[in-house]
Amino acid sequence: MAKSNFVTDAHDKMYSTTVRQLREDLGRKVKIFLPGNPTVCPNCLFNSVDGKSAGIYSPTSPYPAGTPGPTPFQTSICPVCHGSGQYTRTIVKEILCHIRWINPEALQHSSLGDIMGADCRLQSDIKYLQDFRRPPMKIEVDGFSMELVKVYPRGLKKLAQVIAFLKFSPHATPGNKNRTTYGETL
Ligand SMILES: [Zn+2]
Description:
The chain contains two helices and ten strands. It is an alpha+beta fold.
């Protein structure tokens, strides 16, 4: 019994090492754009009753670096948060993935992208599962703008990987539509 466990463990280790090595050899970095946590707008007075901008210019002092403003305004809509009272900052992560572009003409011969209409398949380390699940606002693969179709974990324990299917999304807009987002250009 102990011996067969040893063999299984050795095989598991060899497999996971090979998969990791392949990803490092053949993989490329994919850019994943995630919504950051909402921050109260520093440019206006926050109305905590309705959770929105009170529409009154009231800059925080000191004003946080890297945020647009302070911008005085006379109208009732704050130009920094557009009235929502909050903004988010995009987080960009680079994740090493094994990338597989799906040839639409080959779809009828494979089960990779059928039904979901996916154009690309990514395989990555299981530690990035939550990043794919947040969900990302946009994913950039080989310079193409993509959106997530489906993501799931595959394998157990140290053999686990993330499998993600993406489709082209040339007009991708941030998923966080009700808030103004600053940071990396989307
Ligand atoms: Zn504001």
